TrEMBL record:
Species in which this protein is naturally found: Candidatus Ryanbacteria bacterium CG10_big_fil_rev_8_21_14_0_10_43_42
InterPro entries: Cytidylate_Kinase-2, P-loop_NTPase
SUPFAM superfamilies: P-loop containing nucleoside triphosphate hydrolases
Stated name of the protein: AAA family ATPase
Amino acid sequence: MNKKILIIGSPGAGKSVLAKRLHDKLGIELIHLDQYYWKPNWIKPESDQWERTIQDLLKKVSFIMDGNYRSTLHLRLPIANTIIFLDPSRFTCFYRIIKRRLTKNREDDISGCEERISWDLVRWVLWRYPQVARKDILQKLKNLKTSNPDKTVVILQAKKEVDVFLQSFFKIQEMNQYYELRRNNN
């Protein structure tokens, strides 16, 4: 089984929650990029060190990898066979970030980094991400799909869409397992 699933989107989009749900069902290794990127007290790695880390992670046979990190999309998109872009509204993302901060409930707990909300994060989620990063990601996904039609690219905006996608995805997985068993028994 060679599944390489990327989940990308704004902070607060629900990447880690979706990744965990997929991991729980599929049993594929879960890689929360935030846990590899951030050092204690929110210290960023050097860019060349970060790229080496990504390259090492991409060598795994199968994975579910969540995290945006546009600077490494050029490495990750060609390797993945399924890319899920979570694209809820900026206000939904901002609400989820506040909720996560207040409840201190983060799916991808980052060791040594206390959950916080900075003005930089607020500006990023409410203005910069929708105006710059989102457009860039959509263009990259469009180009990827054009040049690699065999890749699965899914864009989900609402929680209900995520739920419907998961139900369909899991049903397809069950059908594939069934047919694989039948093929092996014949």
